[in-house]
Write a structure and sequence with these properties.
With about 375 residues, the chain is α/β, with parallel strands linked by helices. It is built from eleven helices and twelve strands. The protein is about 30% helix and about 25% strand. α1 packs across α11.
Length: about 375
């Protein structure tokens, strides 16, 4: 999917909650420092033919944000979104600006989650700290790539003049017993018996996507600009049982690079939802050998899941926050204070959707957000 004849877009607000921070500044600082808060979940135990040396090894480790009620995924996602919106509400001018902005929400795939749209909408309206347009509410059950799918749809809507800004959010919790049992059965969960798997986490993220023209008119603080984005589909998904091909993500990045006027484009960082699974590691290695050689720059490889586990549908938002804070603080590049100021965000869904977004900022542009001292 190519994005042509679309308006210039930027992000003017961010909200995030993770296991290592309940606001985007704290969470991103913790991720950069490599902090972790993993713990044994206690709601799922591995049954083995031979006794384990340490009985506690049978419990699965994870990265919960909230204590207790691990199996109430719906309730946890609403609570996490409430916290992410609270973080967003602490930023300037949010309430007045967003009352007419719709909320587009990325959620787990259909295989994992059944949505009651009316109940979900009511819960969100009751718990979010800022108002939003209820009539424009949409949800996207595309898992990891859901927020990028929502971004692409929002860009189309804004090109037709339907909105000046859209709230794009993502929420997921993978620590419930149903998910743990399912992923363990598929051989994807990290356990004492399977070190090449992922640790489950949970998070919620939200961002204000706005046309650059609108942001400039109101002299908004801009966290970063969306330089280009692309979507593609992977046929050999992790659910198909076929060996990794890497075709979908390679295609998405190639489309994205083809949209850039200056090629090869320079890049400071690659932020991926790679989570420790062999499938995803294979995908990223294939992508790197196929297409990343076309991109200049010594790229930082940033994998937030190392610190907070797999955060599913919230993971692109985590990546956007990490990119924004790194740009604002001057450490996106391996050489602080230098580089292009660009980062590539990648996301791969279990059901085949692949998304790539190039984000950046003009360092000399006074409209861009600078952190308060």
């Amino acid at each position: 999917m190519k994005n042509t004849n679309l308006p210039e877009l930027c992000v003017t607000g961010l909200g995030l909650v993770t296991s290592v921070g309940h606001d985007h500044k704290t969470a991103c600082a913790s991720i950069r420092a490599g902090l972790k808060r993993s713990q044994l979940l206690g709601n799922y135990y591995l049954f083995t033919k031979k006794p384990l040396e340490d009985p506690d090894d049978g419990y699965v480790g994870g990265h919960p944000v909230l204590d207790g009620h691990y199996d109430d995924r719906d309730g946890r996602m609403v609570d996490l979104l409430s916290m992410a919106f609270q973080d967003l509400s602490c930023q300037e001018d949010c309430e007045d600006l967003l009352a007419e902005a719709p909320l587009w929400l990325a959620l787990p795939e259909n295989e994992r989650h059944t949505v009651d749209d009316l109940a979900l909408k009511k819960q969100l309206k009751d718990c979010t700290a800022i108002p939003w347009d209820e009539d424009g509410f949409r949800w996207f059950q595309n898992g990891h790539a859901g927020m990028i799918v929502a971004l692409a749809e929002a860009a189309k809507a804004m090109s037709m003049g339907m909105f000046h800004r859209v709230l794009i959010a993502g929420a997921d919790s993978l620590i419930g017993v149903k998910d743990l049992r399912r992923f363990n059965r598929l051989g994807r969960l990290k356990t004492v018996l399977n070190p090449a798997g992922f640790m489950p986490g949970e998070a919620a993220s939200v961002m204000v996507l706005e046309t650059l023209e609108s942001a400039r008119q109101r002299k908004a603080n801009i966290h970063f600009q969306i330089r280009s984005f692309a979507l593609a589909t992977e046929e050999k998904t992790v659910l198909s049982g076929n060996p990794q091909g890497g075709d979908g993500l390679s295609r998405a990045i190639s489309i994205l690079l083809g949209q850039e006027k200056q090629a090869p484009h320079s890049l400071d960082a690659l932020i991926s939802d790679m989570n420790g699974e062999t499938y995803r590691a294979d995908e990223l290695s294939i992508v790197y050998s196929r297409v990343m050689g076309k991109v200049e720059g010594e790229k930082n490889m940033i994998f937030p899941a190392r610190c907070i586990g797999d955060t599913g549908a919230a993971s692109p938002g985590v990546a956007f926050c990490v990119a924004a804070r790194a740009m604002e603080r001057g450490y996106l590049s391996r050489e602080p204070g230098k580089g292009s100021g660009n980062a590539l965000v990648l996301a791969s869904s279990d059901t085949g959707e692949r998304g790539a977004v190039l984000v950046g900022r003009n360092i000399d542009d006074t409209r861009f957000h600078t952190p308060r001292r």
